[in-house]
Please model this.
Amino acid sequence: MSDITKWTLTKTVGALKNKSVSAAEIWDAYQAAIAAKNPLLNIYLSVSKANRDHPGLELAGVPLAIKDNVLVEGLPTTASSNVLRGFMPPYTATFMKKLLDAGAQVLGKTNLDAWAHGSSTETSDFGVTRNPLNPDYLPGGSSGGSAAAVAADLCPAAIGTETAGSIRQPSAWCGTVGLKPTYGRVSRYGVVAMGSSMDCPGPIAKTVEDAQLLYKIMAGMDPHDSTTSAGNPPRKSRFKIAFVSLDIGMEPAIIDRYQKTIDELRQLPIVESVDVLDLVGPEKALSTAQPLDPHLAIGLYTVLQRAEVSSNLARYDGIRYGHDRSYFGTEAKRRVLLGTYTLSAGYADRLFIHAQKVRTLFIRNYEQLFAKYDLVVSPSAPGYAMPLGAMGDNPHFGELMDLLLEPSSMAGLPGISVPSYIDPTTNLALGINIVAPHWDEDNMIALADAYERATPWNRWRKEAA
Amino acid sequence: MADVRAIALSANIPLVEGEIQQLQSALDQTASLVESFHKQTSFAEQLPPTHHTTALVNVWREDAVDSSNGLSIEAVFANGARRLDDFIVVPSVNSDTI
Model:
């Protein structure tokens, strides 16, 4: 039998169904792999001991890695912050209940930037996670532990959450597939709240079909989250693609690489056309089918996210659970302070309400694009994974790393990152980010799957057979 | 520029002396970025603010207690809240400490 831990989720599910492997064998293989690799990589904050099998269910016996900001009753949840060290959730997140009801089991909880504030895992109070592709580099974040767990073959698939890139950016840096659904497609009930108007759980997996399998189970309306909603646009057979200009300050070698990616997309039978579009400023964003300069999303996200963070973190006072507010780390303090500032009397209208108007500008700009194109594609990140320690004291590190993902997140749109290159010298990966209109995950997934199957950049594709 | 100590008081964030300068610097840097963003995007003032990205409005439910969606008393206290009978003990609002 080949190494079980290198199997895709789909292959694992198939092997369990045809009984060529038992749930106990799968569980033991991952426990052994975690014991061997976790001391160096620091991916799992806690590992489960329970191993249940529910024959006949869709995910019977399948172990999953879960980002440690998702509540699962009886398993510790810290959000990688000392404030919640020792906290035991009294209930389970709705989408997790769906996965557990389908037979999945929790292999363990994975590291993240504390409170999901960051894009590197360097703000975690439990130490940084290393990138399995090259341990001298960061995995990205905030779902860096989940992406690294998949990349290191320490789970068949994982769960992340995204506010402005936290599923797709670590997926790009770790060479995995990350799917961020439409805002409201998956319930946020039971997820530690960060930016509530953007937060969205989603899968991180080895292949697109693996991500799709989990996404379909996770999705659905939830009476416990009144922002859940649904839509079902028609499937298309061929796609007109808008590719966002590469003129955003990337290194020439990376631009050259993405030029080849554009050629790869053009050769796909399901792609009708690929137009590479120049960026426009605010004044032209409503009158032309060209993308608004994503650099404006840095300021926009800074205002909106900090404001929502300052509100959401106000509940942590150590009275009902957790530790008091002196336990917050520096990054959380920075964000709460800025959010308090932008929401204070005299500034709320000028800064926060104005930012919501700019958000409308981004949403309407996407409407212009989707009136002419089916999907919008860009690099997932401005470059390869950064070396350990890269964040330093830069208070906008996350915004810069998520530059190309923030516009779609703030517009509530679905997106998926798939591997588009692996550097043979460093072993580091690049990814492309495919964005669809609201509720149009199926067409987005169709292009991602076609690209993955037609190119050599997914490390697990041949294992999927 | 905003005084980080005044904002921290408002946000109930305890600061230690050694971090005040660093947080003041980060606040100044970010506040400057936000002001620059405001100027660059003045065009958007004519637009309505976003209330919900997928335009969802008016989500209603019955005005009734859902007994299936609650915690037992024991579950409420399981994470270490100070307890007096079935009540949670909270700090005095007149106290200087949290």
Chain A has a mean pLDDT of 96. The two ends of chain A are 14 Å apart (CA to CA). The first helix of chain A runs from residue 9 to 17. The first strand of chain A starts at residue 44 and ends at 47.
